[in-house]
Amino acid sequence: MEVVAYANEFAFLNDDVTDSASKERVGSSINFSIHTDTHRVIKTQVQAKLILELMSIDRERAKSLVKCWEQLVKAGASGSKDREFLTLDDYVPWRIVDSGEPFWFGIITYGMALTISEDDRKLIMPITAPAFANLALTNDFFSWQKE
């Protein structure tokens, strides 16, 4: 499952580049603009190649993965990163999605050749949420100073 490992690395690389680009914005808006335009083109090319490879292996599950990926992008575009949370109970459900649960769900089901309907996905959320919460909070702990 080389393509699954590649998709995983792409996700982490994209996250790191986005983090560093945000820091560059503070220093120079011109450099930020050039950096993000170049990054956007390269990212689109790599992402397209990755999706084509996923589709060539398992078209139906790749379509499902792309839908999950779109959910993550839409959630990230909502602009709620500036939101203040008063309790952990408010923060954790948001952080589960923000840390990539839609993408990870898609890549895990793709890699394991599982087909899980939206209805079944909703049913298993209470079971999978603690694992994704652990993933998100562990990431927060180890990257707190970086982010």
Q: What is the molecular shape?
A: globular
- Number-wise, the strands total 0
Q: What structural category do the secondary elements indicate?
A: mainly alpha
Taking the sheet with the most strands, its summary is: none
H/E element sequence: HHHHHH
Q: What report would you give on this structure?
A:
This protein is mostly helical. It has helices at 2-27, 29-57, 59-76, 88-98, 101-111, 118-143. Mean pLDDT is 82; it is low at 21-33.
Short account of what is shown:
With 147 residues, the chain is mainly alpha-helical. It contains 6 helices and no strands.
Give structural attributes.
mainly alpha; 147 residues
How is the topology of this model organized?
Layout: H1 2-27, H2 29-57, H3 59-76, H4 88-98, H5 101-111, H6 118-143
Helix pairs in contact: 1-2, 2-3, 3-5, 4-6
